Amino acid sequence: MRGSSHQRTNASSRFLRNPSSPLSFVLYISLLCLFSVIFFFNSTTQILENQPKYPFHPQHSSSLKGSDDSLWSTPFSHSLRPCVKPTSQYTAPQNSGRYLTVRSNGGLNQMRTGMCDMVAVARIMNATLVIPQLDRKSYWKDSSTFSDIFDELHFIRTLQGDVRIVKELPKELESVPRARKHFMTWSGISYYKNMSGLWKEYQVIHVAKTDSRLSNNDLPLDIQRLRCRALYQALRFSPPIENLGKLVERLRSHGGRYIALHLRYEKDVLSFSGCTHGLSDAEAEELRIMRENTNHWKEKKINSTEQRLGGLCPLSPKEVGLFLHALGYPSSTLIYIAGGDVYGGSSRLHELESRFPNLVSKDTVATAKELEAFSDHDSQKAALDFIVSVESDVFIPSFSGNMARAVEGHRRFLGHHKTITPDRKGLFELFDKMERGELEEGSLLSSLIKQMHENRHGGPRKRGGAPPGVKGRNRFRFEESFYENPYPECICSSKKNGQMATSKVHI
Ligand SMILES: *[C@@H]1O[C@H](CO)[C@@H](O)[C@H](O)[C@H]1NC(C)=O
Ligand SMILES: *[C@@H]1O[C@H](CO)[C@@H](O)[C@H](O)[C@H]1NC(C)=O
Ligand SMILES: *[C@@H]1O[C@H](CO)[C@@H](O)[C@H](O)[C@H]1NC(C)=O
Q1: Which of 276, 306, 308, 428 gets mutated to test ligand 3 (max ligand atoms within 8 A of its CB)?
Q2: CB atoms within 10 A of CB 105
Q3: Are 73 and 418 in contact (CB under 8 A)?
Q4: Where are the transmembrane segments (predicted)?
Q5: pLDDT tens digit sequence for 285-296
Q6: Which CATH architecture has domain 71-76+240-465+475-497?
Q7: Residues forming a β-bridge with 163
């Protein structure tokens, strides 16, 4: 006993000159408490300062306490914090007189991440970025400009220390010839350094597409953190969208905690993926014709059974109901449905509603008057779904995609808020067994499904590379996306104080 206590020559035992005295013991404990309160308070304020205004919402754990807490709790990630501060070598941008004009393509989230990549590309190429033009036709019918959807001034100011951003190209440059480039997908620093050779001939480079133009990995830490500052701090939604994003408060006042379900059982998803399981022949034919007639979908002949075996189909509303029930969510659970119209309409949605009657969506939580301004603006409506999904207690995507990835990544960044990613391949196997009468709904199914998802709650882990065996440039396509999991670059252990997130640098 004596010997072992003598070996404890650390700070606490030196501090405790007389361990047996009750008074000094009480004093010691009180000081410890005081220190930890100060430390906690300090780190909390630093973290809070660092959050974009809307997406942060403290966990609501006061209501519905009890045995079901594990259904809602955030995966263990206590020592991890967002970290987006640049390194000490980071320099302020200079006005090079060179400009990058950009046209973003894709849906809302593809454009958001693409634009943040262009912020990084502008930094790498020493260019001034002109506020991007948005996609108005290819997928989404929406005439919104950047400033309709995003807070333009906040974007420019927040990135002031990183990249010069201007609203428009200077008048005298409007008519000069521009280099028009489709940058190669998943390119790294050396590619863009080489592209800087274009400045010898041109003062303006126009970028025709922004999706996945920057690699996920092997970029300098300062570039990766810049991507995070751009996406999580600078790219805030415009005030009208942020205001309606307060739908979240309305939801909370109804039922406390809620699941945001990105239900992608949409006509185009089913048609594109060729998934017709459980549909009528007429529906399957309608989807096939749609696919046939959509030029940019290259694959026309798809075997639905094989798609399902591969886990490449979205979960149906009925399957989502089975899934949530098996995980143990009570039928009173409030579920916010993000996403477009369910294929098959209300009768198919009813297959979920019959188990979980508390289904809501932006159309039922917001008033018709509030939504009026958003009609014919798909991207703005998608922004509402995005906000409510990021802030939810549990986010569950029924299919993969840009929105699911962006929401998951944002939730990881904010503190690994729970995101349950269904193992669709595994689930389809179980559901097919049920259809063949080899398995029944009940405790066995429930435990199989729980086991299958034990490690699919969005807990901390480093971003994954491509699966083994994938070679060459194809590798980049199969890597986990940077914005789906910005760990380790933008999520650090709080023990490394120097790397801890501090707010707005260079402003
Ligand atoms: C950008 O400017 C910095 C400093 O002015 C310089 O070191 C760097 O090589 C430039 N990069 C390119 C791609 O021109
Ligand atoms: C650099 O760019 C030039 C054209 O600007 C191209 O011919 C060359 O192959 C590029 N080199 C690399 C390594 O990408
Ligand atoms: C689709 O794939 C399944 C499983 O591989 C196979 O049994 C079936 O015959 C295929 N159907 C067609 C129409 O090719």
Answers
A1: 306
A2: 18
A3: yes
A4: 21-41
A5: 999 999 999 998
A6: 3-Layer(aba) Sandwich (3.40)
A7: none
